[in-house]
Design a protein that fits this description.
Strand content: 25-35%
Radius of gyration: 21 Å
CATH topology of the largest domain: Aminopeptidase
Number of strands: 19
CATH architecture of the largest domain: 3-Layer(aba) Sandwich
Shape: globular
Order of helices and strands: EEEEHEHHEEEHEHEHHEEEEEEEEE
Structural class: alpha+beta
Distance between the termini: 43 Å
């Protein structure tokens, strides 16, 4: 296979703190010899494990970019044992456009793995992560939120894996992240996911969903910042003192373990219209309880279509805008497995 056209302006094997770019040549009408310049930070202090931290896999999700931008400016080589690679805006074209997918090729980076070195811009970015960055990493954290069309209770997430030892390591890392909720997540379609690429490479992997609505809050950013440092402590890259970083509330924090065992967790719209959610995020739902109503917005006087929960549990995710289309996920109900699990960083 041909080499990637992406060239880093940093040396991944050099000690110290480096702030540079992953330079992807991109010729277009506005710049004949232009390039997409994806910011990257490398912080290294001798031998040790490597953590790859990413945000902006989707361009309308902001907790990751904010938390990782702050970390890139604050973390010093003397704080770490090993190496931290930080890419706050993984799909940089999408991030700049504030959209889930790239405005250049409409590529969804999180459905483009393993990518192609001679493919579209999005496929080239995926290929570089697949063949160049993932082999460097022992631990991978990819920070997501719901973007403009979904909203979530704030959770760290892992998937069920065929390798029991890898599964156990991922589970401990998820709990070390210390989000208010910790989810064993079921994907509707795992083909092309960055998650799948990382897990198949045998790495310890944690993802998140930390809010939504195309914005970030003080609370959701705080969850991301604490979680990144907890993850780095679990990886033995940060010591306890650096990981806490003045966060005095860490000792008393707990997480609630959630599970998505099968497809009945999802409620999918079969209608276009005006959406009324009947439960708020974090509330408990009974099986067959009305969870949403969809109104025909083309006329008055028509009864709404009621959607009932296919299982009991907690409302963990919901469609965000007030209008919904056929095929949209309206709600996700997850099992509550265990509450009050202590989190220590």
């Amino acid at each position: 296979m041909r080499a990637s056209p992406i060239q880093p302006t940093v040396d991944f094997n050099a000690d110290g703190e480096q702030h540079g770019f992953l330079k992807l040549p991109h010729s277009h009408d506005g710049s004949a010899w232009g390039a997409e310049m994806i910011p990257v930070t490398v912080i290294r202090n001798g031998e040790g494990p490597t953590a790859l931290l990413t945000g902006g896999n989707h361009g309308d999700e902001y907790e990751g970019p904010i938390a990782l931008s702050k970390l890139a400016g604050a973390l010093k080589a003397q704080d770490v044992s090993g190496r931290v690679i930080i890419v706050p805006f993984m799909n940089f074209p999408a991030f700049r456009a504030g959209s889930r997918t790239s405005p250049i090729d409409r590529g969804n980076l999180n459905r483009s793995f393993p990518g192609k070195p001679d493919g579209t811009v999005t496929e080239k970015i995926a290929d570089y992560f697949q063949r160049y960055l993932l082999p460097l990493a022992d631990y991978v954290l990819d920070l997501h939120a719901g973007g403009r069309t979904l909203d979530f209770v704030p959770f760290a997430a892992i998937h069920l894996l065929p390798d029991a030892a890898q599964q156990s390591r991922c589970e401990v890392a998820m709990r070390a992240f210390g989000a208010p909720y910790s989810m064993r997540m079921l994907e509707l379609d795992s083909v092309g996911l960055y998650d799948t690429a990382v897990e198949e490479a045998g790495k310890v992997f944690v993802s998140t969903e930390l809010g939504g609505g195309g914005t970030a809050t003080v609370k959701s950013v705080a969850v991301a910042e604490r979680g990144v440092r907890g993850f780095l402590q679990y990886a033995r890259i940060l010591q306890r003192e650096e990981a806490r970083n003045g966060m005095s509330d860490d000792v008393s924090r707990t997480t609630t373990l959630l599970d998505m065992p099968d497809g009945t967790c999802y409620t999918t719209s079969e209608h276009d219209g005006l959406l009324e959610l009947c439960k708020d995020l974090g509330e408990m739902v009974e099986r067959d309880e009305v969870i949403a109503r969809i109104y025909d917005a083309t006329r008055t006087g028509a009864a709404p279509v009621e959607y009932r929960a296919r299982r009991g549990g907690m409302l963990a995710a919901r469609h965000f805008p007030g209008l919904v289309r056929t095929g949209d996920t309206v709600a996700v109900v997850a099992d509550v497995v265990e509450r009050g699990i202590p989190v220590t960083v």
